[in-house]
Design a protein that fits this description.
Strand order of the largest sheet of chain B: 1-2
Radius of gyration of chain B: 24 Å
Order of helices and strands of chain B: HEEHHHH
Distance between the termini of chain A: 35 Å
Low-confidence stretches of chain B: 1-14, 17-23
Order of helices and strands of chain A: HHHHHHHHHHHHHHHHHH
CATH architecture of one domain in chain A: Up-down Bundle
Number of strands of chain A: 0
Structural class of chain B: mainly alpha
CATH superfamily of one domain in chain A: Cytochrome c oxidase-like, subunit I domain
Number of domains of chain B: 1
CATH architecture of chain B: Up-down Bundle
Largest sheet of chain A: none
Shape of chain B: elongated
Number of helices of chain A: 18
CATH topology of one domain in chain A: Cytochrome C Oxidase, Chain A
Oligomer: heterodimer
Mean pLDDT of chain B: 87
Shape of chain A: globular
Structural class of chain A: mainly alpha
Bound molecules: protoporphyrin IX containing FE
Mean pLDDT of chain A: 90
Chain lengths: 561, 225
């Protein structure tokens, strides 16, 4: 059938211009994902530099001032320009497909969000080009360290502007997601038929809406302090530096749940598909996400136990409580796998890796939620180990699960399984080698954010091991890049549903057409694609045709669930 | 055959995917409500800073650290009820406030008009709202020059810092609101809204009411209590 496209005679555009001006949610999603990985690569290279510097006592090749810039930009890029935007990228690319929408509610606003994010990141990094260097006050930008007295350079201002831009971008994106989910669901797609990932996007957006403005306000006041002689955070003028901490963590702690909830959503999509079973306790999972989000608004001050200015029992209790819904999720995933017919594909391996690694991170978090331990561990490598434990073991592992899972949907090509398994193995091992020694270092009292440490304290060996681990992680990324490169050189040959999956995005071709769906299956349950597969199979059996025909291929293989 | 949806030719045409709710909120209205939520949180951050600074301000009076607000050097600067200010200039903050509050009613008058389909009244009301918004901004600029003349600026201590930061960000929001009103008036003159389709008008009016409410809170906090 020739594709006669009457009516819309868009002027021919070069493909670069097409990408630069697109308002298609799938393209914007892919741009988000690609840019997020770009920032991760830079942040990762910086992390390697940090680890090489710390491999042995003494100054290797960066001085203390540069070192401060490195960990500040590393933390900022990884959290605000990689982990968050990667989730937003998935949300953009996948969520409208999951609810059967043709695009986001406000496509142009969506493009604006992307460009604000991209330039925000570039602006933060451009600090390296200024004479004073990049921002060096840590990703937390604590006052008075971030004041004009202690951070006089332009790098700090560029950091303020860049972070403010990504904050605004996040709010606009959140509004867009929420309206899309409210208004653009296909007929039959009730709230309690929405896939878990879509639910997590909705809840995360709510968190963004409440949490991000707090940092925008704080940044604005910091800027006024630095340039217009304000005194908000300056104790010599009667200002209050702890105020910054409150405003920062009122944003910062919900932010870490913003960085994990969508990834929990990804896990909840992948595990049922490769367990051949429906998600265990779907409604409980939804409630758990909502509970985590609500509690997360009340735990910010657990980052401030040692200021002596916060209500320890309250914030400690809230922080411990949050482990309960998180535990529910972990157990529900395990229950989903229980007695399923497991297929150990690469996305599934990442999920299993997460179950182990994230759980360890969660347990070390519960330890830190107890003030007596926190008093000892604050600002040591114990905290660094904990935060990477949850961010890499949670966010990054789930991010990779999502990439391997949805790559066929977004590109029509599949990532090589063999390379993917090497990637996975090197990362699980590399993670342990890098960060387990850091728990030890923390327990032995090594402070974070130092460029050098004295020899002979027993810190040398764990640091060396940790650096070797970081190199394993770097090498482990190569098979992934190779897999992407090789996949993109092959023709797009993937069927609509290469995995035998459940949710609506697998009902359309891979990659989907511009308007997403040529037809929609009836939506009568949580798993419309699964239902349709079953119906087709039943029909086949009724006609006495027996096993699936040649076209079914991999789709039928997953139809056992 | 497998159940793959791909087997259908592209020419099968687009499916109806976007189900605009038959009733309920239009997208721009819902979007604006959510955006306003985030704006509330933004101002909450600023107010939190203001109250924490205000509560923590102490001065040494008769050798004892005492909590006072406003700081002694700034006492009486922000009395809204005086006709003239310290330096003898006209005190126009109450007229500015009245104009902004009234503009909300005028705006709503315009919204009610377009709901009835009365385009003439609608355009007039929105244009008047716009003019009132600009008037508020001019009066605020005047107020700023008077205060600076009297020696209160962003950098003359926390009283000035907080005052100019809070009112300044509110002013920026008013500015944004007037730009939106101008767009609505312009499109309204071109006849782009009618009784059935005017979601953008509803959305912008919500924003305008929000800006108005913020000012009422700001005025009460800064001038009255
Ligand atoms: C290749 C893997 C990584 C390695 C080897 C690594 C290494 C490090 C090290 C050694 C520090 C401590 C620097 C110091 O305190 O002196 C650090 C800090 C940090 N990292 Fe990573 N990191 C990696 C990946 C990530 C990822 C994926 C994220 C987030 C998604 C992340 C977020 C952070 C944050 C937030 C900090 C704190 C920065 C600060 O103190 O202001 N890192 N990283």
């Amino acid at each position: 059938m020739s594709s006669i496209n009457l009516g819309i005679a868009a002027p021919p555009r070069t493909s670069l211009l097409e990408w630069l001006t697109t308002t298609d949610h799938k393209k914007i999603g892919v741009m988000y994902i690609a840019s997020a990985f770009g920032f991760a690569a830079i942040g990762g290279l910086i992390a390697e530099l940090i680890r090489l510097e710390l491999a042995a006592p003494g100054q290797q090749f960066v001085n203390a001032a540069t070192y401060d810039q490195l960990f500040t930009v590393h933390g900022t890029l990884m959290l605000l320009f990689f982990a968050g935007p990667l989730a937003i990228g998935f949300a953009n690319a996948i969520m409208p497909l999951q609810i059967g929408a043709a695009d986001m509610a406000f496509p142009r606003l969506n493009a604006l969000s992307y460009w604000l994010f991209l330039f925000g990141g570039l602006i933060v990094m451009s600090g390296f080009l200024t004479t004073g260097g990049a921002a060096a006050a840590g990703w937390t930008g604590y006052a008075p360290l971030s004041s004009s007295t202690f951070s006089p350079g332009a790098g700090m201002d560029l950091w303020i502007v860049g972070v403010a831009l990504v904050g605004v971008s996040g709010v606009l994106g959140a509004v867009n997601f929420m309206v899309t989910i409210y208004a653009r669901r296909a007929p039959g797609m009730h709230m309690f038929r929405m896939p878990m990932f879509t639910w997590t996007v909705l809840v995360t957006s709510t968190l963004i809406l409440f949490a991000f403005p707090s940092i925008t306000a704080a940044l604005a006041m910091l800027f006024i302090d630095r340039h217009f002689g304000g005194g908000f955070f300056d104790p010599t003028q009667g200002g209050n530096p702890v105020l910054w901490q409150h405003l920062f963590w009122f944003f910062g702690h919900p932010e870490v749940y913003i960085l994990i909830l969508p990834y929990f959503g990804i896990i909840s999509e992948v595990v049922p598909v490769f367990s051949g079973k429906p998600l265990f306790g779907y409604r409980f999972m939804v409630l758990a996400v909502i509970a985590i989000a609500s509690l997360s608004m009340g735990v910010w001050a657990h980052h401030m136990f040692t200021t002596g200015q916060v209500d320890l029992p309250f914030f400690s209790l809230m922080s411990l409580l949050i482990a309960v819904p998180t535990g529910i999720k972990i157990f529900n995933w395990i229950a989903t796998m229980w007695r399923g017919s497991l297929r150990f594909t690469v996305p599934m391996l990442w999920c299993i890796g997460l179950l182990y690694v994230f759980t360890i991170g969660g347990i070390s978090g519960v330890m830190l939620a107890s003030p007596p331990i926190d008093y000892m561990a604050q600002d040591t490598y114990f905290v660094v180990a904990h935060l990477h434990n949850v961010l890499i073991g949670g966010t990054v592992f789930a991010g990779f699960a999502g990439i391997y899972f949805w790559f066929p949907k977004l590109t029509g090509r599949r990532l090589d399984e063999g390379l993917g398994k090497i990637h996975w193995l090197l990362w699980v091992v590399g993670f342990a080698v890098t960060f387990i020694p850091q728990y030890v270092l923390g327990a032995e009292g090594m402070p974070r954010r130092i460029a050098d440490y004295p020899a002979g304290r027993g810190w040398d060996l764990p640091n060396l091991i940790s650096t070797i681990g970081a190199l394993i992680l770097a090498v482990g990324t190569l098979p992934f890049l190779l897999a992407v490169w090789r996949a993109m050189r092959r023709p797009a040959d993937q069927p609509a549903d290469p995995w035998g999956a459940n949710s609506l995005e697998w009902a359309t071709s891979s990659p989907p057409p511009h308007h997403n769906f040529d037809r929609l299956p009836p939506i009568r349950s949580l798993r419309p694609v699964f239902d349709e597969r079953m119906a087709a199979e039943a029909e086949r059996r009724a006609r006495g045709e027996g096993a699936a025909g040649p076209t079914a291929g991999p789709a039928a293989a997953g139809g056992t669930g | 055959m497998s159940a793959d949806a791909t087997v259908l030719p592209a020419a099968a045409g687009r499916v109806k995917t976007a189900s605009h709710p038959a009733r309920g909120l239009g997208n721009p209205v819902l979007g604006m409500l959510l955006f306003i939520t985030s704006e509330v949180m933004f101002f909450a951050g600023l107010f939190a800073a203001y109250f924490s600074i205000r509560a923590g301000h102490t001065e040494v009076i008769n050798g004892v650290a005492t909590h006072v607000w406003p700081p002694t050097q700034d006492v009486g600067i922000l009395n809204p009820w005086r006709l003239t200010t310290e330096s003898g200039a006209l005190n126009l903050i109450v007229p500015a406030t009245v104009i902004l509050i009234l503009s909300s009613f005028v705006c709503q008058w315009g919204v009610l008009a377009i709901r009835r389909g009365d385009q003439r009244t609608f355009v007039r009301a929105i244009s008047l709202t716009f003019v009132m918004g600009v008037a508020f901004l001019l009066l605020q600029a005047y107020d700023y020059t008077v205060l600076m003349h009297e020696g209160v600026t962003l950098s003359t201590g926390l009283f000035g810092s907080t005052y100019f930061t809070l009112t300044g960000f509110h002013g920026l929001h008013v500015l944004g609101g007037t730009l939106m009103l101008a767009a609505v008036a312009y499109r309204g003159r071109a006849g782009q809204f009618n009784a059935r389709r005017h979601d953008m008008v509803e959305a912008v009016s919500l924003y305008w009411h929000f800006v108005d409410v913020v000012w009422i809170v700001l005025f009460s906090v800064l001038y009255l209590v």
